[in-house]
Amino acid sequence: MRNKIFIAIEVVIFCAFLYSMNCFWFWNFRLPYFNICAVALLLIFRTIDKKAFILKPRNFYVCIVFFIAQIFGNDAFSDMGKLLGAIIYSITVWLVLSLNGNLQARIFNFIYNKLAIILAISLLTFFLVLLGIPLPNFGTISHPTSIFYWYANYGILLFGVYGIRFNSIFCEPGHLGMMVAFLLFINGYNIKNKSTIVLFVSLLCTLSLAGYVLAAIGFILLQMKRNFKTTLSHLAKVAVLFCAVYTFASNYNNGNNLVNELIFSRLEYDSQEGTIAGDNRASNSLKQYYENLTPNEFLFGIGSKRYSDEASGGLLAGAGYQLFIVIYGVAAVISVLLFYLSIIYSNNKSVRTEYFFLLILYALCFVQRSYPFWASEVFTFILANGIFLKLKQTITISTK
Question: pTM for this one?
Answer without folding.
Answer: 0.90
